[in-house]
Structures are given as structure tokens and as C-alpha cells.
Amino acid sequence: MNRYTPIAEHGMVGDLQTAALVSSGGIIDWWCTPRFDSPSVFASLLDSERGGYCRLAADSPDENDMTARQLYLSDTAILVTRFMAPGGVGEVADFMAPVDSSTPQDRHRLVRLVRGVRGSLPFTFTCRPRFDYGRAAHTLTQADDHSALFRSTGMDLHLQTTAGIPLRADGNDITARFTLSAGQAVAVVLTSAPSDGPVPQHPSLEGIADDFEACRAFWLTWLRSCTYHGRWQDIVNRSAITLKLLTYAPTGAPIAAATMGLPEQLGGERNWDYRYTWIRDAALSVRTMIDLGFDEEAQAFRRWLRDRIEAGGTVSGDPLQIMYRVDGDPHLTEEILDHLEGYHGSRPVRAGNAAADQLQLDIYGEASDALIVGDDVGAIRGWKALSDVLDWLADHWDQPDEGIWETRGGRQNFTYSRLMTWVAFDRGIHAARKFSRPADIARWTGVRDTVFRQIVERGWHQKRQAFVQHYDTDVLDASLLLMPEFGFISPRDPDWLSTLDAMDEELVSDSLVYRYDPAASPDGLRGAEGTFNLCSFFYVEALARSGRLNQARYAFDKMLTYANHVGLFAEEIGSSGEQLGNFPQAFTHLALVNAAMALDEELSKAQARPRTDDHRRPATYGLTVPADRSGISG
Questions:
Q1: Of 44, 116, 105, 112, which is closest to residue 78 (Cα–Cα)?
Q2: Sequence ranges of the domains in the chain
Q3: Residue 309: CB partners within 8 Å, gap ≥ 6?
Q4: In which region does residue 342 sit, left (phi positive, over 0), alpha (psi from -120 to 50) or beta (all else)?
Q5: For residues 428 and 491, is the Cβ–Cβ distance under 8 A?
Q6: What is the DSSP letter of 263?
Q7: Contact of 543 with 521, CB cutoff 8 Å
Q8: Could you tell me where the DSSP H helices lie in 355-493?
Q9: Is the CATH number 2.70.98 carried by domain 10-223?
């Protein structure tokens, strides 16, 4: 197999408790089980030799004769990889049937269904599991030609096939070769389970076909709840499914991404573990899920969030910490996996996340907004959780923190953190009045107004005519694109429009947006990074709300060209348009949906009103050359 498949050359399948990546060449090179944040079984995406993989692909004597294409079965999480050669066409459908959503499951089943479509085509199957991120040895036991058991400490991986795939041992791994003609089908089933558990029932093609249809029906039924019917239906549907796939069903906690260790710069050290639940990311998803019609998902996370506040038990002793495991465990000890070389040699590979004990005061604003948008605070437990947080925040808001980007260069008075502090008190005051709940409204109002004045006086840089990253700098920060979204400032306010103009000049490169300039604002880490897809979609939404519709639509359409072949986004875009960082990133897909809905709304308003000067900026379509800002990325 090739050393490393590009990050973008993958689709994702999952069962709402775990997820696997499948490359466009038919390789499963990432799967952690029985939970998103469990150690890996396949991780060749992080080390092509030690990580382990499962390959199922068509063969051809001449690689140039073989073409592979990948797609999702429309509006589902069933991933189809098609192989086309002069002798025939075949396809592999990968899927995981969603499991019981109420309780964690210790057995997970990944199905690979292979069909001959035209002519005749040879296939090769290789299964090389490497347990515990490649640190644990395993044994292989074969009962017959169609089943095998890989056993490691605490975990079994059962491999079972239907007739037509004769398995052969290759040391402690398995290989097989077979040929399919048009109309023929076979299947491979991988089942992860605790050691010494019962052997799964041997699969039949009829049973696999039933599972396939049940999986397809699940996703089609779930998507019927979606209330979005706008101009970008397909990409919004795909983003919604991706967000659902990245949500741990037993608790309702969404993770940031399916992977860990994928670099923000090839060869760099910005390689983090994203398989956890960030309060910020998940809280911001609540309003989006409600706007899309997925009230159940929004309600599940709000319950999880309320439980975190009530339980306490954070590492720092504060009411909340910035991230947790999906079950609410606050301990995310970071370790470096020295034995893994990293994607294209990008070291170190980190498991766990030391940023969990950072102070990021903005999370209280996002959490408050999430609790209030669903009227949870009308209930006694919901109100107590919110009021306890705000009473604590009233004593602790005016201090430096690490900020939204989890920098490791020291605490600052970040403007975004103050913005979200203002949001927390603003939402709490409105909720107290709406539901007639007991609260120290006078104190909360005083703090809210003090924060507002502080941002206006210290977060505004007179020379730059823009709001800046923190109070002691003139550096811009793309997180402030959310200022109008949260109601702090009107999207048509002159101070906001001049801030947007400044970001246009400094942070935006052909619709792609940098978070900030790390050379001007050192963040304690070596190397550079690409543009942040999250910020690029924030930018589209800000343009749309500010009335710059031509510019917003052109920026959005260009952003969609950076999606991969199945509509997925990683965290960042590199200088050559390549996807970088953990994949797929939930926050990016959340921001995409928000941008699509905002742009739809503003375009519809513009079409409904008489033609007047609406302050829209024309799109340049490349006819003017912007200043070169490539230096931001190093």
C-alpha cells in the first residue's frame, strides 16, 4: 500500500459510538473501538508500518489501468468505493449499523460488502490489526477458511467472511484473493469485542443485505427531521450526517473530530487529539441543530452539559473545564506515542489533551447560550445550573486566560473571552426575567455592562480601527467574526464594518481565513499552520449578515471547492489547497451549516425587497489582485 493516503482521500463510517476512516483506495487506516477515544485497532494513517490497516480493493496488473472513485449512498452514512478497470467494475460498500443509543456497547460491527458490477475483477483482502496504537501484540486463530480471531490484551477482533473469500494466514495477519463477476457478491465482517466473549453469528449474504437496508433506512428516516430546504441542500445534509456520526449516542456528547495526531502543518508539532467533547464546539452546535430541526440531539447535549455543571469534579475546581471525555470524565492526560512516526513524519503523536486544564472563560458564554436557547433554564435544575455558573463567573471573569485557540504562550486578556462573558450575563439576565427566576440581576447587569465598556474601550484599537485579539496587541483574530452573531454589535455598525475590512486585508486569502498571525502573536508553538475552515465559514456568515452578499456567496462557493470528494472537511487548508488537521472536523461542518443558513436567509431577504443600495460589495472574481498575505502561514 502507499505510505500515506492524503487526509482528504477518506470517507467516514460509524455507528454513533465509534467511527472508521476508509480511504478512496479501499483501506481502513483509522478505527478506534469500542469508543471514539479508545486505543486504535487500525492506525496506519499515523504510522504506515506500525499502525495497522484493513485493505479490500480491486487489483490490476497495471496500476494505471485501475480507477477508484468514492461516494456516499445519497443521504446516508454508507460509503461506496468503486473500482473500474478494462476487465470489469466492482464496488465495496462500507457501513456500520447504528447501535442501541441508550447504553455504551462493547461490541461493534464494521461490514464490507463487495459486489461485481460489470465484467470480472480480481480483489485482494489484507487485515493487519495493531492493537493499542500499535503497542500491543496479538495472536491469530483460524477456525476455518472463512473466519479468524485476532486476540490482544482485553480485546478480540473477529473476522468473518461469506463464501467466496478464502482466508489465509500471513504470520499473525490475514490475506485473501478472489475474483468477482457481474452479479456476484461477498462480504467481510469485522467485529470488535471484549476478550473471551461469545463468537458472533456467522454472516450470510441475506443477513448482510438486511443490515444494509436497515442502515440506509435509519439515515433516511433520521434526515427527514431536517427542516433546511435551501440552496445548498446536499452539502448541508452531508454536514448534518457528519455531525450526527461524531456524536456519542449514549450521552449526546459530540466529539471535535474522529482522529488524533493529524498535523496542522506537515512535519510540525501542532498535532492534537480531537476525540473529546469541547464545551465550546458542542454548545455552539445546539442552536444549529435546533435550526435544522434536530431537537432531540440538542436536548441530549444540554442534559449532558447540565450534568457536568452539577457534577463538578473538574481538574481545576472551576464549574466547567473546556473539554471532557464523552462520558463526562474530566481526565484527559496527554501522552506522546513515541513509537509512531506520525502522518508523513509529523511528530509528536499525542493521545489525550493537556489543554483540558486550561482556563478559557469563553466557554461560560457558549454554555449559557446553549442552555437558554432550549428553554432548559425554565426547569428548576436547569436554572440552578445556570445561576451557579453566573454567580461564579461574576467573581472570576476579569482575569487573563488561554483563549479560544488554546495557545500555550501564556495567558492574555482575550477579547473573545470577554465577548462570551458578556453573552453569559446577557442571556442569564433575559432568562431570569422571562421565567421569573431568583437571581442577583442587579449584580449580573453591572458585570455585563462593565464587560461591554471594557471591550469597547480596551478591545478596540483606534489606529487599526478594529477590534483586536487581546487588550495588549494590535493583532487581529478571526474568532471576533462572531461578535455580530451573538448580538454584541450590529452587523452594519461602522466599527464592525471597519473590523471586517481589516480582517479582509490581513487574515483573508481568497476566501480562506487565518485564525491570527502567529508570528505577530506568538502562541508558544513552533511552526505555522494553514487557514482554518471554521473561520472561513464564520467569515461567510459575517459577510452575509453585513449585507455584502455578492462577496459572501462567492466566498462560500469557493469554500465548497475545498471539500473532499464526499463533502467532508478537515480542520485546515494548506498552501496548496490540501486538507490538514484532524478529520472530519465537526466544528467546520457546524460553521458550514450556519453559513449556508445565514446566506440563504439574507439572499431571500434581498430578493424580496426593492432594488436599493444595500451596501453590498461586488465580488471581484479575480479581476483585482489582493495583497500577498502568504507570510502568515510561514
A1: 112
A2: 10-223, 233-615
A3: 319, 320, 367, 385, 388, 389
A4: left
A5: no
A6: -
A7: no
A8: 363-373, 380-396, 415-435, 441-454
A9: yes
Reported pTM: 0.94
Query: Percent of the chain beyond pLDDT 70?
Result: 94
Gap between the Cα atoms of 90 and 613, Å rounded: 56
Q: Which residues contact 180 (CB under 8 A, 6 or more apart)?
A: 90, 114, 115, 116, 120, 121, 123, 164, 186
Q: How far apart are CA 288 and CA 89, in angstroms?
A: 41
First to last CA, the chain: 32
How many Cβ atoms sit within 10 Å of the Cβ of residue 139? 9
Q: Is 374 helix (H, G, I), strand (E, B) or coil?
A: coil
Helix axes 533-545, 494-506, angle to 10 degrees: 140
Rounded Cα gap, residues 324 and 520, in angstroms: 31
Cis peptide bond N-terminal to 61, omega within 30: no
Give me the CATH topology for the region 233-615. Answer: Glycosyltransferase (1.50.10)
Could you tell me the three cell numbers for 363? 466557554
pLDDT of the residue at 535: 98
Q: How far apart are CA 317 and CA 332, in angstroms?
A: 15
Q: CA-CA distances (angstroms) from residue 199 to 100, 148, 193, 196, 541? A: 20, 10, 9, 9, 51
**C-alpha torsion sign, points 356, 580, 266, 36:** positive
Give buried/exposed letters for 533-569 (b at 16+ CB in 10 A, else e): bbbbbbbbbbbbbbbbbebbbbbbeebeebbbebbbb
Residue 385 half-sphere exposure toward CB, CA atoms < 13 A: 27
Say how far apart CA 509 and CA 629 lie, in whole Å. 7
Q: Tell me the one-letter amino acid at 198.
A: P
pLDDT value for 331: 94
DSSP 305-355: HHHHHHH---SSSSS--SEE-TTS------EE-TT---GGG----EES-GG
Could you tell me the three cell numbers for 405? 485557540
Amino acid letter at 588?
Answer: T
426/447 Cα distance (integer angstroms)? 10
User: Contact at 8 Å (CB) between 10 and 22?
Assistant: yes
User: Which H or E element spans position 40?
Assistant: strand 40-42
Residues of the chain with pLDDT under 70: 1-2, 100, 374-378, 523-527, 611-634
One fold for 10-223 and 233-615: no
The pLDDT value recorded for residue 317 is: 87
- Cβ contact 514:447 at 8 Å: no
Question: 148, exposed or middle or buried, with CB in 10 Å at 0-12, 13-18, 19+?
Answer: buried
**Grid coordinates of 448:** 455585563
